[in-house]
């Protein structure tokens, strides 16, 4: 049984929405071990891949669940495809795992030099190639004919991808100071679709994550080039609007435990229970009601202060956030641990 480390972090009075503390909170200095490289939530259960490529499962309280399934290792990634289904990628082999019975069936095989992206509701597997998308079932390739960033159109390893509830695949890219890029593919129509993006190409942030909130899609992006800058962009019917910016010029938070400049927003998540958008940066975890003016800094409330090494130690960069059905926020702390935030206490699973 894995050891749980329960850490009491900064708990803010909920009446102080949008306020930030000038006093440095007490922060944990526990050295963690082990680590995880992927996590998904199915209902109120967590499924994770540890650093050695083995599958693990936990309750939303952080208690480990016994597993009887046998899968080849190392596991590359895992993906939630339905309420009780987990897609497990082991190198080029893809398996479908029933989370209730733990029965495992062989699903598909990826061609060499491809990266799994998603499986749509028609059970078609989509993968990234060196030049575009591949429908693994039909072996048909699709190459984007336009780009938001004139420096490049496509990369063989996207930085983020998400299939939304309309069967549309959102694919993001990160080229550092050369900017980000976005391609959107309608798996129903089997073609790339354009998005209305009003911002200049040079200001398109490298893409870190996506999340779906009601009928809208949100994108977070960030870059460190001299100083941090980041953005959150909302897409409504494929029309983009930048809803939050953070740079050394605007919306930065002058905390003594944070950077005196822009925030690096690593990932975002949506709480259906609260109807709030969450983001993580080197300054902690923030949330805001989805119907507020998100471009205003005061809309965002700090709910969890960072661990002592988060602002400077990239090994503890939070690379993924997901919500369970019982509204627990799960964090993938890169190269380290899983975090479960219950609104009051952060529990770490090393």
From TrEMBL:
Gene3D superfamilies: YVTN repeat-like/Quinoprotein amine dehydrogenase. It comes from the Bacteria. This is Uncharacterized protein. It comes from Hymenobacter sublimis.
């Amino acid at each position: 049984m894995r050891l749980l480390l329960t850490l009491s972090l900064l708990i803010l009075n909920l009446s102080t929405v949008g306020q930030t503390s000038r006093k440095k909170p007490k922060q944990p200095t526990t050295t963690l071990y082990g680590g995880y490289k992927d996590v998904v939530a199915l209902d109120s259960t967590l499924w994770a891949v540890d650093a050695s490529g083995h599958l693990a499962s936990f309750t939303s309280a952080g208690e480990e669940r016994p597993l009887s399934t046998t899968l080849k290792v190392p596991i590359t990634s895992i993906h939630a495809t339905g309420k009780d289904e987990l897609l497990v990628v082991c190198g080029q082999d893809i398996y479908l795992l029933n989370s209730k019975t733990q029965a495992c069936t062989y699903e598909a095989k990826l061609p060499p030099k491809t990266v799994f992206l998603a499986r749509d509701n028609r059970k078609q597997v989509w993968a990234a190639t060196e030049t575009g998308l591949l429908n693994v079932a039909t072996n048909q390739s699709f190459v984007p004919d336009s780009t938001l960033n004139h420096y490049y159109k496509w990369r063989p390893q996207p930085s983020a991808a998400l299939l939304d509830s309309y069967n549309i695949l959102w694919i993001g890219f990160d080229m550092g100071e050369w900017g980000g890029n976005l391609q959107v593919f309608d798996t129903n129509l089997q073609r790339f679709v354009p998005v209305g993006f009003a911002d200049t190409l040079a200001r398109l942030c490298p893409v870190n994550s996506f999340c779906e909130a009601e009928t809208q899609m949100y994108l977070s992006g960030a870059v460190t080039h001299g100083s941090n800058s980041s953005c959150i962009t909302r897409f409504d019917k494929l029309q983009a609007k930048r809803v939050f910016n953070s740079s050394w010029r605007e919306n930065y938070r002058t905390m003594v435990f944070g950077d005196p400049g822009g925030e690096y927003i690593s990932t975002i998540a949506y709480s259906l229970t609260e109807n709030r958008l969450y983001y993580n940066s080197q300054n902690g975890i923030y949330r805001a009601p989805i119907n507020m003016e998100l471009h205003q800094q005061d809309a965002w409330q700090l709910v969890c202060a960072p661990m002592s090494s988060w602002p400077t130690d990239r090994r503890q960069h939070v690379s993924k956030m997901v919500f369970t059905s019982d509204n627990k926020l799960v964090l993938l702390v890169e190269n380290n641990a899983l975090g479960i935030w219950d609104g009051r206490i952060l529990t770490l699973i090393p």
